[in-house]
Amino acid sequence: MSLIRYVARRLGQSVFTLLGVVTLTFLLVNAAPGDPIRIFIGPSADAATVESIRTKFGLNQPLHVRYFRYIGNVLQGDLGQSINYRVPVTQKIFERLPATLLLVASSFTFAVLTAIPIGVLSAKQRNRFSDHVFRILGLVGVSTPSFWIGLLLIILFTYHLGLLPATGLIMPWAAPAAVDNATTRIDVLYQSAIHLLLPTLTLGTLQMAAIMRIERSSMLEVLNQEYVTLARAFGVKEWTLLRKHAFRNAQLPVLTVVGLQLTTALGGSVLTETVFSISGIGTLIITGVNARDYPLILGTTLFYATIFVVGVLITDLLYAYLDPRISYGGGDD
Amino acid sequence: MSDADSDSVSTQTSLAGWTDVTAQLRQNATSRWGLYVIAVVIAVAVWAFIDGVLLGYHFAETYWHSPVTADPGARSLLPPVGITNEFGTGVWAHPLGTDHRGRDILARLVYGTRIAIQIGIVATGLGAAVGTVIGAISGYYGGWVDDVLQRLVETFYAIPFIVLMIAIMSTFGRNLWIAIVGVSVITTPVFARLIRSEVLSVREEEYIEAAKAAGVRDRNIIRRHIIPNSLAPVLVQATLQVGVNILIVAALSFLGFGAQPPTPSWGAMLAQSRTYMLPNPWFSFWPGLAILVTVVGFNLIGDGLRDAFDPRLDD
Amino acid sequence: MPSTRDLTTNTRTRYTTMSDTPLLKVENLKTQFFTDAGTVRAVDGVSFSVERGEIVGLVGESGAGKSVAVESILRLVDPPGRIIGGEITFDGKTIVGFEEDPDDTNEPARSEQMLSASEMRSQIRGNEIALIFQDPMESLNPVFTVGEQLCEFIEINRGLSGSDVRERAIEILREVGIPQPDERFDDYPHQFSGGMRQRVLIAMALGCEPKLIIADEPTTALDVTVEGQIIDLVYDLQEEYDTSFLWVTHDMGIVAEICDRVNVMYLGEILERAGVDDLFYDPRHPYTAALLNSIPRPDQAGELQPLKGSMPEAIDPPSGCRFHDRCPDAREACARTHPTLRRVTEDEQSAACIKHDAFETDYETSRQLSPGGVSMVGENSE
After folding, report:
1. How far apart are CA A68 and CA A23, in angstroms?
2. Residues B32, B36, B38, CA angle at the centre, nearest 5°?
3. Does C193 touch chain A (CB under 8 A)?
4. Burial of B246 (0-12, 13-18, 19+ CB in 10 A)
5. What's phi and psi for C316, nearest 5 deg?
6. A241: which chain C residues are within 8 Å (Cβ-Cβ)?
7. I want to staple B298 with a disulfide (CB 3.0 to 4.6 A). Which of A79, B243, C257, C375 is the partner?
8. Distance (Å) from the alpha carbon of C122 to chain A's nearest alpha carbon
9. Yes or no: domain C2-128+211-381 corresponds to CATH 3.30.1200.10
10. pLDDT by residue (tens digit) across B267-289?
11. Measured between alpha carbons, how far is C259 from C261 in angstroms, rounded to an integer?
12. Interface residue of A11, A126, A143, A218 to substitute, partner B, most B CBs within 10 Å
C-alpha cells in the first residue's frame, strides 16, 4: 500500500494504543488499596474533612464516571491535580521534563555516536582481535545493571578522584546566580557538562552496547548478501562497499532497535535519576507511587506511554520511508 | 486422515534438529562457558531455595553465616579479606566483607541468587507461554482478532516496564508473587510479537496448506505444526529474556519494589550500599558483579543458541 | 575465431580451433577450504581455457566446484578458502601464479607477476571480466534504483561520468530488451519481474564491455520461456560485441544450445573436455555418457537411466578415479589409479578415464608413422 495509507493506518493504531494505556493505568491505579486522602492528610483528620477533600478531588464518584471525565480532561490537556504537590500534574511534569530530556537526549546521542562506528568497524574486522574486544564490551554492556555502573562511577570519579559531581543536573541555560561555583555563562555550561557526564555514561552504556551489537550483526548479514559480492566482483572498492552498499541496507534493523531503545531509556532514566538524585520525571513517578498520588501516577504514566507510542510511530514511518519496498509498493511479480 | 500422521513428521524433523543444536552449543567455546556459569548459578539458587525457603536458613545458620541476621559480635562494613578500611581489616570468615548490619556479603549473595533466578526463570516461562499462545492466535487468524490482540499487546508494551511494574506493585503489593506476575506481564508482549511474526511466515508454508486440506483442525495445526516450527527464535529469546528479567528484578529491588527485607536480594543490596559508598565501596561492588556474571551467562547461551539455529556458518 | 549464427535455421556454426594464446587460461588450479571438519578440495587441479569470441561451458552437478572455480578466477575466494596452486592467466596478465614448490608444502609463495589485490580490482574485475549471477533478486541491491547500480558499475569500469554514464546505461538497458528504459532506469529491483531483472544483470555485465563474461547459472531461476529469450539475447549480444563467455551450468540443454566447447566437472576435477557436438554425440567419459543418458533427448528413444548414488563430499573424495564408485564401466584398476585428463581423439577431445589410455600411445605412434597424415589407428578400442 502507499505511504499515505500506511501512515494513516499507523496513526489510527497509535490512538487506540494510547486509549488502551489510559484505561489500563486508570484501572490499575484505582484498584490499589489504601486511601490517598488519608495518606495525604494523615490519620488524625476527622471523617468530615476527609470526605470534603475526597469530593473536591472527585474521588467519591463511581468508577466509570471518573473514567470518562478523566478521558475528557486528558483530551483537553488537563491531567488533573497532584494530591501530593497540590499543583496541576501537567505543571509538575513540565517542571521536571527538562532534566529528563537532557539526560535521555545526552545518553542517546552518546550511545548512537559511539555504537554505530564501532559496530561497523567490528563487522569489517570480523574475527580479528579488535572485533573480539568490541564484542566482549558489547556483551558486558548489555548484561550490566545501569545503576551499578552509576554507583561505581560515583565511587571512582567523585569519591576517589574528586573530579565529577554525584548529584543533580544543571541546565545549560540556567542563570549563573542559581548555580554554585558559577559566575559566568561559560561556568554554567561547564557545570552543566560535568554534572551530565556520569549520568550519561550510566544511562547510555546499555543503549550503546545494544545498538553496537545489532549494528555489527546487521552489517555482517548484509555483507554476506549476493549484491555485495556482485559489486565486489565488478571492482567496487572495499570502502565504498562498506559505506554505500552495505551500510544503508544494514541500518533498517538497527533503526528498529534504536527506536525500541527509546523505551528502555525512559525506563532506565528512572534508575539513573534515582542514583544521581536528579529531579526528573523518573523520580517524580517514584514519589507519586510512594504517596499514592493517583493523578500524578496516571499523568506521568500516560506521558511516558505517549512518548513511547510517538517514538515507535516515527520509527516505523522512517523505516517505511527508507525501505523502497514498502514506500513504493510491491512489484509486478 | 488422522492427525497422528501429520504430527509425526514435524516431530521427527524437530528431533533431528535438536541433537544438532545441542552438539553445536557444546562445541562453541563461549556458549560452553555460559552453560557452566548458569549451571553453577542455578545450582546455587536451588540450594538457596531449599535451605532458605524450606529450611529457614538452617544450614546457613548452623554451618556458615545467616544471610538475614548478623552473627553476634560481627562487625559492620568490613572490606574483603586483605583490605583495610576505617571499620577494620577483612578476614577469611567474611571473604567479601560484611554489610551495614554486619551480615556476611557472600552469604547474602548466595541466598540472593534464589530471588533472581526464581523470578527470572518463572516469569520468563510464564510470559513466554502466554505470549506464545496470544501471538500464535493473533498471527494465524489475522483479521480483527489480530488487530484487537495486537492493540492489547502494544498497550502493555507502550508503558516502560519499570513504570508498569511500579504501578502493578503499588497496586497489588510488594511481594514476590506479584513481582513474578508483573514481570510475566511485561515479558508477554515480547513473545507475542515474536511468535506472531514467525507464524505469519510459517503460515504461508505449503505443509500448512496440506494439513488444512487434509482436514486438520485449526487448533491442532497451531499446536502441532506452527508452534514447533516457530520454536527456535522463541528459545533464543527466552534465554536472553531471562537475563533481561533478572536485570529488571534487580532494578525493582533497587527501587524498593522487590523482595522485602530481610530477604536477601542483589538489587536491594545495591540500594543499601548507596549510603555507604564512601566508607566501603566494596559493598557496592559484589552484588552488581553477581548480576553481571549471571546475565552474561544467559546471554552467552542465548547467543550460542542463536548461532546454532542459524543455518549459515558464522565465525 | 568467432562462431556465426545461421538465421534461417537458427543454428550456430561452431569453431573449435584452439590457439596458443587463449584469452583465459586456467592451469592446474587448486583451491581448498580449510574448515574445522577437514580440508575441502573444492578445485583440485582444474585446467581449461577460453578463446576470444568463444562460449565455453563448465558443466557439473551441484557441489562439483564450478562456482569455486569461478570465484578463483576473480580471486574472490573468501576464508577459510584459499587458492593454493595453479596458474590463471588472462590476456597476458597473471591472475594467479605461484613460485615453484619443490617440497610440496602446499603453501607456495605467490609469483612476482601475480596482480596485486588493487590491480585485480581496478583492472580485471568488471572491466576485463564481468560476472552474471544466478539469482537476480539477491544480486541487486534493494535500496538503490536499477539505474544507479548500473551507472556505478559502468562508471568505475569504463571511466565515463555524469550524463554520459546515464546515456550509456539507458542504451544498454534498451539493448537487453527492457522496454521504456529511460523510465525503468529509476525503478527499484523489486519493481521488475524475474526475467527483466536477469536482463538488468546482463546489462550490467555488458555495460562494462568486458572481454570475458562469466555467467554462473544465470537462467536456473527462470521459466523456460524466459530462459529462451535470455539465450537469444546472449547470442545477439555475443555476435555484436564478440565477448567470450564462460557459461557455468548443470543444465545440459543449455549447453547444447549455446556452447562451443564444454568442460565436464566432477568433484573438483575436469573429467571431459570436448567440442559441443563431440560431447553430445560421442562422449568419451562414462560420467558424461551417464549424464546424457539421464536427461530426455529428442534424438534418443528409450528409458532414462539416472545415475546411481550422488556426488560425494569434496572433503573425502573416493580413491583413484573419483567417479569410480558410481561408474557403470568401472574396473578394478579404477579404484587405484587416478586418471589424468588427456586427449582421446584427433578433434581435441579429452577425457580422464583409463579406458582411453591406449589412445595416446596409438595416436602418437600413428603420427610418427604417417607424419601430417590422418591416423590409421583412429578410434580407440575398448
Report:
1. 10
2. 115
3. yes
4. buried
5. -135, 75
6. none
7. B243
8. 6
9. no
10. 999 999 988 888 888 889 999 99
11. 6
12. A143
Contact B242, B120 (CB under 8 A): yes
CB atoms C156 and A233 under 8 Å: no
Domain count, chain B: 1
Q: CB of C372 within 8 Å of any CB in chain A?
A: no
Q: B255 CB near a chain A CB, below 8 Å?
A: yes
CATH of the domain at B152: 1.10.3720.10
d(CA C71, CA A229): 10
Confidence band, pLDDT 50/70/90 cuts, at residue A57: low
- Mean pLDDT estimate for chain A: 82
Chain A residues with CB under 8 Å of C76 CB are 229, 232-233
Which candidate, C177, C184, C183, C179, places its Cα nearest to that of C198?
A: C177
For B238-259, the three-class secondary structure string (H helix, E strand, C coil) is HHHHHHHHHHHHHHHHHHCCCC
Q: Read off the pLDDT of each residue in A86-105 and give the average, rounded to a whole number.
A: 89
Q: Which residues of B touch A304 (CB under 8 A)?
A: 159-160, 163
Residue B1 belongs to some domain of the structure: no
The shortest C-alpha distance from A217 to chain C (Å) reads 18
For chain C, residues with pLDDT lower than 70 are 1-20, 100-108, 300, 346-347, 357-382
- How many CA atoms does the CB half-sphere of A148 hold within 13 Å? 29
The residue behind cell 478523566 is: A70
Three-state DSSP at A100 gives helix
Which residues is C247 bridged to in the sheet? C57, C215
Residues 6+ apart with CB under 8 A from B86: B279
Q: Is C13 within 8 Å of C4 (Cβ atoms)?
A: yes
Q: Which three cell numbers stand for residue B235?
A: 528459545
Global pTM value:
0.79
- The domain segmentation of chain C, as residue ranges, is 2-128+211-381
Peptide bond into C210 cis (omega under 30): no
Shortest Cα distance, chain A CAs vs residue C324, angstroms: 35
B58 is in which domain, residue-wise?
A: 20-65+78-313
Task: Let me know: does A122 contact A208? Beta carbons within 8 Å.
Answer: no
Name C198's Cβ contacts closer than 8 Å, sequence gap at least 6.
Answer: C132, C136, C218, C219, C221, C222, C226, C230
Cβ(C45)–Cβ(C69) under 8 Å? no
